């Protein structure tokens, strides 16, 4: 009987190991780490894509471990490559102003409605100005 129970637990663990985490589930899990009023959906989408580089629509256990390994134990170069892949939304090897603006906008969404910064920073054009300043710094 004990052996049967152990086998059931192992089988359940294996099911978890091979189960795909779909983007909707990932977004629900991700949202739990942000304050009430925050909209983490768009940023979670971008993070999800970095863990699903082949765009299969699901993160496998292997995808997750490989991604986490880069973030936790990777070299500075590995982490920069990961960050670059986060910002290079279409994967063409270039980060455009539009891509940066979309990421910055999603980061502001993470701050939540309760923060005054959202209203003061996200006035029309403010996100674009922020992105323009970043590009001015990187071009000099
Ligand atoms: Ca790009």
From TrEMBL:
Residue stretches in coiled coil: none
Keyword annotations of the record: Calcium, Metal-binding, Repeat
Cross-referenced CDD domains: EFh
GO molecular function: calcium ion binding
SMART domains the record matches: EFh (SM00054)
Domain called EF-hand: residue spans: 39-74, 75-110
Gene3D superfamilies assigned: EF-hand
Pfam families (UniProt xref): EF-hand_1 (PF00036), EF-hand_8 (PF13833)
Protein name according to UniProt: Kv channel-interacting protein 4-like protein
């Amino acid at each position: 009987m004990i052996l049967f129970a152990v086998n059931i637990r192992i089988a359940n663990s294996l099911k978890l190991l091979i189960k795909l985490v779909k983007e909707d589930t990932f977004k629900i899990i991700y949202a739990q780490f942000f304050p009430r009023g925050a909209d983490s959906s768009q940023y979670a989408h971008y993070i999800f894509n970095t863990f699903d580089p082949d765009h299969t629509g699901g993160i496998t256990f292997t995808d997750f471990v490989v991604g986490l390994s880069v973030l936790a134990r990777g070299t500075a170069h590995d982490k920069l490559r990961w960050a670059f892949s986060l910002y290079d939304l279409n994967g063409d090897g270039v980060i455009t102003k539009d891509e940066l603006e979309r990421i910055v906008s999603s980061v502001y969404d993470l701050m939540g409605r309760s923060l005054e910064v959202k209203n003061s920073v996200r006035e029309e054009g403010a996100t674009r100005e922020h992105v323009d300043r970043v590009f001015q710094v990187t071009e000099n």
